[in-house]
Amino acid sequence: MSLLVDRDLLALQEMRQVVGKAKEAQQRYMSFSQEQVDQIVKAVAEAAYEKSYELAVMAVEETGMGVAEHKKIKNEVGSRAVYESIKNEKTVGIINEDREKKLVEIAAPFGVVAAIIPTTNPTSTAFFKTLISLKTRNAIVVSPHPYAVKCTMEALKVCEQAATAAGAPEGLIGCLSYASMEATQSLMTHKDVNVILATGGGGLVKAAYSSGKPAYGVGPGNVPVYIEKTAKVEKAVSMIVDSKSFDYGTICATEQAIIVDKQISSAVRRELQANGAYLLNQEEKARMEKVISPVPGKVNPKIVGRSPAFIAGLAGLTIDDSIRIFVAEETEIGKDVPFSLEKLSPIFALYTAEDERHAKQLCSRLLDLGGRGHSLSIHTEDDRVAREFALDMPVSRILVNTLSSVGAVGGTTGLAPSLTLGCGTFGGNITSDNITARHLLNIKRMAYGIKEVDIPRKGSIQVPSSPLVENKETDEIVRSVIAAMGKSAQVDVKEVSQLVSKVIEQYSK
Length: 509
Hints:
Helices cover about 45% and strands about 15% of the residues. The strands form three sheets. A seven-stranded parallel sheet has the order 10-11-12-9-8-13-14, with helices on both faces. The chain has a five-stranded parallel sheet with strand order 5-4-3-6-7, with helices on both faces. A three-stranded antiparallel sheet has the order 1-2-15, with no helix packed on it.
């Protein structure tokens, strides 16, 4: 027990020291010019890119998740692709000026960024968050996932060495070496931390939003993929299987359930098998359900990012090396339906839709189960269908005719390269954007007067008297008219008076 207490105390002490150094370094970094900042960012991006494969191997060895060759691609997106997307952005001093409106925009950093890193993408996310922090003259303090401390620390070491060699203040990039939840919680509430970038499980993201600090968090991504009847089936299925098997499904934007129009369902099944899918029978499906979710409503962490061979062993199935994913036909959706959950592994549910309307219902129910605000994938040759889904679905990204996993992070699309994907208010997030450098900037605005305005003195405005006839005068006029009409007139004086007043009011406008 004393060892545990000592470790927690050491973790807290380390966190305070790292944050203190980061704050001091950031204060010095504030005086750096745009040119100096850009030199540092470029040096870090190049160093990270060079170590992409080495760190990918280290991540797989430490976490047991994913494929080194695929994690290399993630590292390349998190380093070079992110750099290319932000390298020309102005982030120092005056960044924009509208001479017509006499409006000047000035960039100011947030300060110290607390970055929470997931076990699924431990090195690529570290690269990405470091680059966007440095580009905006922020310091960064990273809290690694307990199962990925070594590889995350090594990634940060690569970044730190490159940054200091390029002239950055020491301490600008910090990393917590102790895996301590208490230290992570204290980091998020530390008085010198200015913003939180939280990528991880729902509980951690909720803690970030509850910290009292500005925070960017991401929600779960139970991504449906709809293969509409006009889709090029062969190409669509090939991309879907490639996407699902990419790094064994560890990207949160990876497809989780296939919805296929019944007109092409047979063709889709054939193509799935041709691309290495193992179609589970009912008995095998039942066994796999217990592997996916031993406890109802919760996904087994042992399957996350693991190979088909490993998962087959847990389910008591015998497969060969040609199998890339598992697929089971499903009709139900719910927390007690394992195949309908976000599995983060090479396991698919397959739903058959009667028509486009039914497909929308299935997609909506899957998103409501745990993916609202994140992403939806669709394969179709009918742009009307794609646009209709984009308008109707409660998601922040709609990926059309591409790999959802890689497309959502900007690998195959024009979206901003990012390893933190906002889910908007659909998913309880502050933004629906792919998080990037601009999200770590305060924009100050200097505005010159361009309009003249006369401010009246108190009491200088005289309210004119109403031109309307007073009600009492109207009543007297109505009574005299009725008296002239004789006793036979059955008229309500008050009612006629009100009608006359309304007529006068109408014509006096």
